[in-house]
Specification:
This is Capsule polysaccharide biosynthesis protein. There is one protein chain. The chain has 17 helices and 15 strands. By secondary structure, the chain is α/β, with parallel strands linked by helices. It folds into two domains: 285 residues, no CATH class; 94 residues, no CATH class. A six-stranded mixed β-sheet has the order 3-2-4-7-6-12, sandwiched between helices. Strands 11-10-15 form a three-stranded mixed β-sheet. It has a two-stranded antiparallel ribbon with strand order 1-14. Helix 7 crosses helix 9, helix 13 packs across helix 16 and helix 14 packs parallel to helix 17. It is globular and about 70 Å long.
Amino acid sequence: MSVMELESFTYPMPAGLHVISPSDLDLRPDNTIDQVLQDPRPVTSEKNIWFFWHTGYMQMHPYAKRTVRAWHRRFSKLGWEVRVVDRLPGSTLNVAKFLDTSDPNIFPQAFRDQTIGGDYAPQHTSDLVRWPLLLKYGGVYADVGLMQIGDLNRLWNETIDNPNSPYEVLSYHAGSATERNLTNYFLASKRDNPLFERCHRLFLALWAAEGGKHSTDGMHTSPLLKGVPMMGAETDYSFVEDGRFYDRDEVSRLLTDYIIQGQVMTMVMSLVDEADGWDGPRYAAENIYAIEYMEGSQLINVFTSWDGRRAFELLSLSLPNLGQDETTQHKEAREVVEGCLARSFGFKLAHGLILRVIGETLGTLWRKHDGSDNVPGTYAHWLRYGMIHWTQDLLPPAVVFKDRRPIKVGPLLRDT
């Protein structure tokens, strides 16, 4: 959204929020922000916010660029540098400018040869850059579909960057307190984090299997992941595509391969290797600040029962005019926006494989209806305005992990 659009509407601020001083925001025009994002400064600290889009920032969908600009507007004046890395030849933000893309200790053969295939090659390419970037430079890695709401800078300062805090990792957690199920769409740490270092080694081993893989298809069968629960195994997901019925077990296998990084993190957090000095269950309980993911990053879907069309219709509504009665739909839309701004640390727009399972999402509909997320006077615009101009009074609570028995005892890369 442009500065004119940002400043021309006055929206009600929900309880539990306060206004961010304009001096702490970068409210310059969109084209100026775009120029800044395409001309990154050298890495000089660990306050980095990393994104990936394989064909470069300017080729991103407009609604995703608005999301990335919002991260920059909120946090750049607090010392954060936003970078959207890519694989575009000649780009100043090509991954090769930041990492040695020929190093087999950093990237698998398929990445080095640019032969990653399958239905979700760009997503899996992005999976392969996030841990190397965090291990070398530190900071935050976020998917371009993650809309930031909460105060990242304050949370970073009070946890990871606080020498008196035990926390070394920030993420979202999908599961109960006895499970270990971090999401990969928001990861934060300082350089050389021991959890992510082990995750990266295991991830490379999965890609190196069978002489070198070109996609994540079948990775759920790896003996290196034996004992890790499958994704979606307890749900009743199924769908029909091109005349073929995919039952719950098949959907679970598809989801697990698609989000194989989640399996990797679960294994490392559930591994005890005394010879390596690693106790994953203890590390998770003591050193990971994990935000419950439904409240923290999926609240719109909670309000709308994962009905993307419903979410799109509600957020596309215009707020009632002064003196106009609030309809039932207006009330529902207001509760969505107020709930997200006051209670959520972010909101993750869904794309990728999950579309085959649940159908259209808010993200796909914003993509299909260009500009619909940015119409002044609508609830979507109110949400975007609040993400930039207001911040929450309180930080989100961390999940209190309960100790659990390890899934695996012994070396990380031993497959028996």
